[in-house]
């Protein structure tokens, strides 16, 4: 297994906030990005596992993800996605209260139509 570093030139604030160490990183080879956009992501059959995320680092021009992988080469123009670790993320929220923060970084108007949650009391 080897560590592969994926560098992104986006602000670290643009990173999905639910991504965390031990999540599994997947990729889709996209040799022609224009044709990839026209496909339904749910019907892609060439999703491949890259490995397990071991580090998230802020860099001077964005951020990097370090993935422990069996791959020895990288494919340019990949679509990257992740899945949560099922061992650590198997239950709903627990406790008596919750605090949520919703942030809209857009300069345009946005509406939130619904928020839902599943909560389980932790001491019963």
Word description of this protein:
The strands form 2 sheets. This protein has a 5-stranded antiparallel sheet, with no helix packed on it. Strands 6-7 form a two-stranded parallel sheet. 4% of the residues lie in helices and 33% in strands. It is built from 1 helix and 7 strands, in the order ββαβββββ. β3 and β4 form a beta hairpin. It is mainly beta and 124 residues long. The chain has one domain (2-91). The relative contact order is 0.25. The longest helix is centred in the first third of the chain and has 5 residues, at 33-37.
Q: Termini, distance in Å?
A: 43 Å
Name the structural class.
mainly beta
Number of strands: 7
Radius of gyration: 18 Å
- Biggest sheet statistics: 5 strands, antiparallel
- Shape estimate: globular
**Oligomeric assembly:** single chain
Helix content: under 10%
Total number of helices: 1
Spatial order of the strands in the main sheet?
Answer: 1-4-3-2-5
Uncertain ranges:
none
> Average pLDDT value?
78
Helix and strand element order: EEHEEEEE
β-strand percent reads: 25-35%
Question: How many domains?
Answer: 1
Descriptors for this entry?
124 residues; mainly beta; five-stranded antiparallel sheet; two-stranded parallel ribbon; 1 helix; 4% helix
Question: Nutshell version of this structure?
Answer:
The chain is mainly β and 124 residues long.
Produce the secondary structure layout.
Elements: E1 2-8, E2 24-28, H1 33-37, E3 48-59, E4 62-69, E5 79-83, E6 93-94, E7 119-120
Parallel strand pairs: 6-7
Antiparallel strand pairs: 1-4, 2-3, 2-5, 3-4
